[in-house]
Specification:
The strands form 3 sheets. Strands 2-1-5-4-3 form a 5-stranded antiparallel beta sheet, with helices on both faces. 42% of the residues lie in helices and 24% in strands. The radius of gyration is 30 Å and the shape is elongated. Helix 5 packs antiparallel against helix 8, helix 6 packs antiparallel against helix 7 and helix 6 packs across helix 10. With 372 residues, it is of the alpha+beta class.
Length: 372
């Protein structure tokens, strides 16, 4: 590229890169502006002349390269979101790739620009997790208040009845006893009203639910990439498009997959994510692994309620998040007695198979497409 072009890219405040479609070394980085250096921590010397396969480790490199390849082959601009482990932190980035054509109308370069969505996505996650905690605690409070109201209502009615009976047969001698009986009756009536008011308040809380269209394979790919950038474990997910709360689902799946990997007891874990439509508006997800499993799956989700900013909800927090969306979750041991199957229901719909190019395809890292 000309020096003037490189200087122009460096003057742009957002990360920008350029990929070359030279047949000898296809889809290599030939420009990486100063903003890209600042946001990624990668120097130009570290990036230029490499493909995404060589720049990023394992699964992450394959995912990025697949997006590059799809735009290069189609000649159509496209945007995609990907979770990148930059500076030891998870960053959600939306990248837009635009093809450039020569005088013959052939695509010879791709220009990429990136926008950091981390703050927006983290805020969404924090709001959803906080709302789920609020609804879960509200449900627990409602259950407690319901039991308390049931236990208190009968004695309060008995007090009212006794006060009524005393007042009906009582002969007033003007010594203030009748006023005390009436006061007792009024207090019991007001106490019963307060119990009803508290119960009504406990039922008032609600949690706003998102519903967007997205690709499950892409969402899982982002999770796999962040949890296993070195490609040490084996993951798979069903390639379908869904309409449901993507952020809440990402929180649930990430915690379950992370838990499966951390407690697998193996150097290389196998984790599989599947989904099926069990009713018109309800999905069932399964997360299967080959790890050590739970000592007692029936109580797997009864402990670990505290939210941790590094690792997430914990199993009880995930249960609360699923329940807050109207779903149920439980763990079971496969017939082989090896590993764990976690099933949970979640509101949503399957829209169909994934669109071409959404799920990263498996291919040899050394492979290059012919330049057309």
């Amino acid at each position: 590229m000309e020096q003037s072009e490189l200087e122009l890219l460096d003057s742009i405040g957002n990360p920008v890169f350029v990929l070359d479609l030279d047949p000898a070394r296809w889809l290599t980085y030939i420009a990486w502006n100063n903003a890209a250096i600042e946001r990624s921590g990668f120097s130009k010397a570290h990036v230029l002349g490499k493909t995404a396969l060589e720049l990023y480790p394992g699964r992450l490199g394959r995912a990025a390269y697949e997006h590059h390849k799809a735009v290069a082959e189609s000649g159509i601009a496209a945007s995609y979101e990907i979770a990148l482990p930059l500076f030891a932190k998870e960053r959600f980035v939306r990248t837009t790739l635009t093809p450039l054509r020569n005088t013959k109308g052939e695509v010879y370069r791709l220009v990429g620009s990136a926008i950091d969505l981390s703050s927006e996505r983290q805020q969404q996650q924090a709001q959803i997790m906080a709302a789920a905690e609020v609804k879960a605690l509200t449900a627990e409070m409602e259950q407690f208040v319901t039991m308390a109201a049931h236990d208190l209502r009968t004695p309060m009615l008995n007090v009212q009845e006794i006060a009524f009976m005393l007042r009906s047969d009582f002969e007033d001698h003007g010594d203030g006893k009748l006023e005390l009986i009436e006061m007792l009756e009024n207090v019991s009536i007001k106490a019963t009203g307060l119990i009803s008011d508290v119960l009504t308040y406990a039922r008032a809380a609600n949690v706003e639910v998102r519903c967007v269209e997205f690709d499950l394979g892409q969402l899982c790919s982002n999770i796999f990439t962040v949890l296993d950038p070195q490609d040490e474990h084996h993951f798979s997910s069903k390639a379908v498009r869904l309409a449901c709360d993507d952020v809440a689902l990402q929180i649930i799946l990430r915690n379950l997959i992370d838990n499966a990997v951390k407690h697998s007891g193996q150097a290389s874990a196998n984790v599989r994510v599947c989904v099926s439509q069990i009713s018109e508006d309800c999905l069932e997800f399964t997360v299967c692994d080959n790890g050590r499993g739970f000592h007692d799956p029936s109580i797997a989700f009864l402990g670990g309620a505290a939210f941790n900013t590094e690792s997430g909800f914990g199993l009880l927090g995930i249960k609360r998040l699923v329940n807050a969306r109207g779903g149920e979750i439980h763990a079971e041991t496969p017939e082989s007695n090896s590993g764990t199957i976690i099933r949970f229901t979640f509101p949503g719909k399957i829209l169909g198979e994934s669109k071409p190019g959404f799920e990263p395809a498996k291919f040899e890292p050394a492979a290059r497409l012919e330049h057309t």
